[in-house]
Amino acid sequence: MAPATSSLFAETSTDMSRADATKRISVKTLVESPGLTSIPTNYSYSTNPNESAGSNPNEDTFPVIDFSLLTSDDPHKRSKTIQDLDRACQDWGFFMVVNHGVSESLMKEVLEGCQEFFNLPVEEKMEYAGRDIWQPIRFGTGVDVKVEKFFFWRDFLKVIVHPQFHFPNKPKGFSEVAREYCKRTREVTTELLRGISKGLGLEECYIEKKTDFDAGFQLFAVNLYPPCPQPELAIGIPAHTDHSLLTLLIENEIGGLQIQHNGEWFNVNPIPNSFLVNTGDHLEILSNGRYKSVSHRAVVNNTATRISIAVPHGPSLETAVGPAPELVDGESGRPAIYMPMKFKDYLERLLEGRPCNLDHVRVPVA
């Protein structure tokens, strides 16, 4: 594994208004520099001509799943919610979960802990700087320029929290709050996967068993998006899909998440105290394409700092996930469209600075 390196955050020009910084520093440090009126050129993001701006959907546009009905003892309520969940995964690959049982106070505490972490002195955060994706605790900014030609307008903290729990020891109490939060999100995800299994016509624990979910890979990924003087020229995170089965996300009431649906981008305005859930690559693979790994992105603004916490839940690293055999039938026109690949191998493409997406496991069409 590559050692942590502080060269990731080299000093840049003291005259930030010149916007000619050529070395990477944390975006928070950049924003706090005096005289910043424009972004350094290496943060400039060129949008695709076919890439539209986000629009505000109608209030009832996004699917909403009532978790209390999904776990209800009433078979009719549960069955109806499973149908709604199946439809949301097919049509959107995204939904909001309400009445999930995770307390509002815990969600608020973990967001506050993230803010306190990013407010630590640079030297203390630098203890976790590094580029190795297997580094259990990793603080950084943007992405490796081997993958992208520009820097993202965000700082991040990424922590592997399952099957072994790791976490920074500062700020005080943050680790304990995060441990409880990760435990609770894992419980919610388990119930969602059980409902999804039933929606696919499989036994309730099918996905858990086939992905070795008890030993599954869980990441705690926090993104800090400081105010940007030229938000129209920068991007928090460009369009991408997640590698996981499901990702649960919360934010600090500052918008920025956009979801792509039928080629159109929509701004996401969460229901208070809800989880934003999106389907990932490995749920698309397991469902043999019935569910789509949804493309999403994070845009920035010039007025307020946005914090989001994404918790992707994936298979165990040693599990090779392919289409469920029950969902494959070559004779009836449902051949397998994906090849199995070990989840660890799927992720390790990132270590090599190579793109990692569904195209690499898609069965070639003859």
UniProtKB/TrEMBL annotation:
Gene3D superfamilies (UniProt xref): B-lactam Antibiotic, Isopenicillin N Synthase, Chain
Entry-linked SUPFAM superfamilies: Clavaminate synthase-like (SSF51197)
InterPro entries: DIOX_N, IPNS-like_FE2OG_OXY, IPNS-like_sf, Oxoglu/Fe-dep_dioxygenase_dom, Plant_2OG-oxidoreductases
Annotated signal sequence range: none
Location of the Fe2OG dioxygenase domain: 212-315
Disordered: region residues: 39-58
GO molecular function, one term: oxidoreductase activity, acting on paired donors, with incorporation or reduction of molecular oxygen
Residue intervals passing through the bilayer: none
Family: Belongs to the iron/ascorbate-dependent oxidoreductase family.
Name the UniProt record assigns to this protein: Fe2OG dioxygenase domain-containing protein
Record organism: Rhododendron simsii (Sims's rhododendron)
